[in-house]
Amino acid sequence: MQTAHDYDVVVIGAGPAGEGAAMKLSKEGKKVAIVDARGQVGGNCTHVGTIPSKALRQTVFNIMRYQRDVMFQRVGELRNVPLSQVLARAHTIIEQQVAVHSRFYDRNEVDVYYGQAHFVDAQHLSIKTREGGTELLSFASAVLATGSRPYHPEDIDFSHPRVFDSDKILTLDYPVHKLIIYGAGVIGCEYASIFVGLGYKVDLINTQVQLLSYLDDEIADALSYYLRELGVLIRHQEQYERVETFDDCVVLHLKSGKKIKADAILWCNGRTGNTDNLALEAVGLQANSRGQITVDQQYKTAIPHIFAAGDVIGWPSLASAAYDQGRCAAAHILGVADTPRVEDVPTGIYTIPEISSLGKTEKQLTEERVPYEVGQAFFRHLARAQITGETVGMLKILFHRETLAILGIHCFGNNAAEIVHIGQAIMQQKNGGNTLRYFANTTFNYPTMAEAYRVAALNGLNRLF
Ligand SMILES: Cc1cc2nc3c(=O)[nH]c(=O)nc-3n(C[C@H](O)[C@H](O)[C@H](O)COP(=O)(O)OP(=O)(O)OC[C@H]3O[C@@H](n4cnc5c(N)ncnc54)[C@H](O)[C@@H]3O)c2cc1C
Ligand SMILES: NC(=O)c1ccc[n+]([C@@H]2O[C@H](COP(=O)([O-])OP(=O)(O)OC[C@H]3O[C@@H](n4cnc5c(N)ncnc54)[C@H](O)[C@@H]3O)[C@@H](O)[C@H]2O)c1
C-alpha cells in the first residue's frame, strides 16, 4: 500500500465549514490537512454561491440606483447589460477572496491538497489529485464539509445551452430578454431581483402558495409587492410538467396547463449534499435521499471520529452558519464539551429590497398565544434613508407586552442584513438586558439607519396600555 501522510484531522471541503474547522484545529496545535476538488480554496460559497451572487447583486443595485438619480440619467443606457460584463467585477472579488483564504491556510500551516477525496476505510482517505496522481492520508478524526450542489431532476437536460442552474448561470454569455426562474426559494428570489434589475423580463415560478413562507407575513408580502413593482411576474402554486428546449428558446409546461416561453430557464429548485463520491460505505456511513448526513448535537456523525458541518448536513445551509458549525465540530474534536450547537441563525436575503430577520414571526407568536406587541419604523421617515434615497423598507420589532423582552426582529430595505445585528445583540442579552427599553433609552448617532430602533421602540411602547 502507498505510504500515507499522517494527520490528526483531515477536513474534506475548503468552503466556510471546512475552513472554520481547519483554522480552529490548527490553532489548537493539531496537524491538519484540508482537501478540495476545485483546485482553489473558498468552496462553492466563494466560486459559485454567496460571493458571485452578492457581487452581482451589488453591481445591479448600483445600476438601479444610478438609473433613479436624475443626475445620472445617461446611465439609463445600461439596461440589458451583458451578464459577462457585470460578472467581471464578481471575478475580481472571487480572486481576492481566494487570495485571502489561501493565506489563512499558509499562515496556520494547514496542508492543502487539491483533488477529489474518498474514504478507503475509517482511518484513510484517498485523493485523486488534479494532476492525475493519488495521495493517501491517514487521520485520527475527519470533518466532512463537502457542501452542496444544485439538484437536477432527471428529466431536465442541464447540458442544453438554454437550461441553467445557479452554478451554470454564471457562464451565461448570450443576450437574454426573457428568463424563466423555476423555484422561488432564496436563490430564485435573489436571481429574480438581479435579472429584472438588469432589464430582463423575468417570470418567477413558485411551487408554494407564497414567497419564502417562513418569513413574517408582512415581510413576505412586501417582497412580493416590490418584486412585482420591479417587473417580475410571479406565479404561485405551479409545478412543472416538462421543459421543452429549442435552439433559440425554451418552453416551460406547467401542470396547470399554462405554457411559458423564454430565451432561457434558470432552475432554482432544490440542492443536494455532495456525498455521492465519498465512498461513505467504506466507513459505514449513509446519506439521506438529499445527499445529506445526519449529525448529533456535537456535529458528530454515526461514526464517532467523523464529524460533518455546513450544507452537507442540511439546515440552515448558509455560509454564515457553516463557518460556525465547522468551528463547533472542531471544538468537539478537541474535547471542549460545552461548545453550544449553532442555533438562532438570522436570515439575510439579498433580494432588492434586502430582507433580514431573527426570532419569532407574528404568526408563530399568535399560535403560541404569546402576548406580544409590535413597534415599527418606516425607512421613508428616517433622515438617513431620505439622504441616501433608499426609502423603501421597514423595521419591525416584536416584543412581549409585559416583560418587554424582544421576541423577533424583521426588517426589509437597504442594509437590512446589517441593521438586524443591532437588534440581535440586544435580543441575545439574557439576565434582564434584553428589553425594548434599551432602544428607547439609548442615544443613537444621527442620521443613521440604527435610529430605526429608537423609532420602532417608541412606536411599540406607545401602543401599550
Ligand atoms: C446562489 C447562492 C447564493 C447564496 N447566498 C448566500 C448568502 O448570501 N449568505 C449565506 O450565508 N449563504 C448563501 N448561500 C449558501 C452558501 O453558499 C452555502 O451555505 C455555503 O457555501 C456552504 O458552505 P460549505 O462549507 O458547507 O460548503 P461549500 O461552500 O459548498 O464548499 C464545499 C467544497 O467541498 C468540495 N468538495 C466536495 N466534495 C469533495 C470531495 N469528494 N473531495 C474534495 N472536495 C470536495 C467542493 O469542491 C467545495 O469547494 C448561497 C448559495 C447559493 C448557491
Ligand atoms: N441569502 C441567503 O442566505 C441565501 C441565498 C441563496 C441561497 N441560500 C441557501 O441555499 C439553499 C437553497 O436555496 P433555496 O431557498 O432556493 O431553496 P431550495 O432550493 O433548497 O428549495 C427549493 C425547493 O426544492 C425542494 N428541494 C430541496 N432540495 C431538494 C432535493 N434534493 N430534491 C428534491 N427537492 C428538493 C425544497 O423542499 C423546496 O421546495 C437554502 O438552504 C438557502 O439557505 C441562502
TrEMBL record:
Binds 1 FAD per subunit. Its EC number is 1.6.1.1. InterPro entries: Class-I_Pyr_Nuc-Dis_Oxidored, FAD/NAD-bd_sf, FAD/NAD-binding_dom, FAD/NAD-linked_Rdtase_dimer_sf, Pyr_nuc-diS_OxRdtase, Pyr_nucl-diS_OxRdtase_dimer. It holds the Pfam family Pyr_redox_dim. Residues 345-456 form the Pyridine nucleotide-disulphide oxidoreductase dimerisation domain. GO terms for biological process: 2-oxoglutarate metabolic process. This is Soluble pyridine nucleotide transhydrogenase. It comes from Agitococcus lubricus.
